[in-house]
Amino acid sequence: MNSEGVAASVIPCQGGVAILNREFSITGGTGNYTGFIWRRPSDGLYVVTCNPDCSPISGYRAMNNNTYSTLTITDVATTDAGTWRTLDAVAEDAVPVSVCHLTVMKIPRCSISSDVDTDSLEPGTQLTLTVDITGYYCSVETGFDLTTGDVTEPLGMRHNVSDVTDSVYDKTFNTGLRHLGNVTLNFICDTNKTLTCNGVQKLLEKGNATTATATTAAAPTPTAAAPPTTAAAPPTTTRQSSSARSPPVFEDPNRDITLGIAIGFSLLDIHSATINMPRLTEQQRNNAIGRLQAGHTQQQVARAMGVTRLTITNLWRR
């Protein structure tokens, strides 16, 4: 019995559940022993004897002081599960004293498949999930629960295993809104371990996956389509007929002289000017035409646009 009156044999070992093939340590009091022994649960084998130095067998080691001893299992096996005990190494007919109960487990791998498309489920659809579980072990009663969305249901019956085991379960149900969401497997072995399996990991309602894909695919469209729309807008909204571009009448002798000279140059070498005319963007052309309509001279517009006067002359005559 411990200080609280609870049988020591039912007290779990500190540190939780031991994982198969990993290291685990157990600590127990030495009482008034001048020498003591650690005894394995499954077969009563003496794995370490300390009197006063500790002499372990392969796979175990121990250290001790005046009040407690720590046993380390270097590679936990199924035979290490159960209630560990110590006993006096000196006294004859010594009675073993329980230290703690060790639960051993091996966490499995799992894969889930379905007989229907789980990305496009309609309410009421019957589906069967096949859960393939490999390499699990638990030294106490074990089992599995399957969680789909907000619904958790057992897979098969709780059971005991004597060694590392594989199992396959089929779960058939009609899908409802509460089933939609993440799919996980709960491994029960003195505690719960939530596993995310390969294969089916979500149940989705019909339309959700399609909508998400369509939204993602359509998102870039406005960006891609924007340049043609922007480029096409000026011809549609700003280009005018030739008659509409007739310059307003202003009494500006300099403009008349400049315009006459420009027309003369244009008639003499319009082909050369056309070939050598710097390229203006549609926006620049509209800007130049607007300036001319506002009464600016061709020379002023040419200077402002950074082109030759012949370029503006030919633009005005188009």
**Number of separate helices:** 6
Strand coverage percent: 25-35%
Q: Low-confidence runs (pLDDT<50, min 5 residues)? A: 1-9, 210-251, 268-277
| CA distance, first residue to last residue | 109 Å
CATH class of the largest domain: Mainly Beta
| Helix content range | 25-40%
* Count of beta strands: 19
- CATH fold descriptor of the largest domain: Immunoglobulin-like
Category by helix and strand content: alpha+beta
Give a verbal description of the structure.
This protein has 318 residues and is of the alpha+beta class. It folds into 3 domains: 8-105, Immunoglobulins (Immunoglobulin-like); 107-209, Immunoglobulin-like, CATH 2.60.40; 240-317, no CATH class. Helix content is 25%, strand content 34%. It has 6 helices and 19 strands. Strands 1, 10, 11, 12, 15 and 18 form a 6-stranded mixed β-sheet that branches. Strands 5-4-3-8-9 form a 5-stranded antiparallel β-sheet, with no helix packed on it. Strands 13, 14, 16, 17 and 19 form a 5-stranded antiparallel β-sheet that branches. A hairpin with a 3-residue loop joins strand 16 and strand 17 (192-195). The longest helix is centred in the C-terminal third of the chain and has 24 residues, at 253-276. The chain is elongated, with a radius of gyration of 44 Å. Mean pLDDT is 79; it is low at 1-9, 210-251 and 268-277.
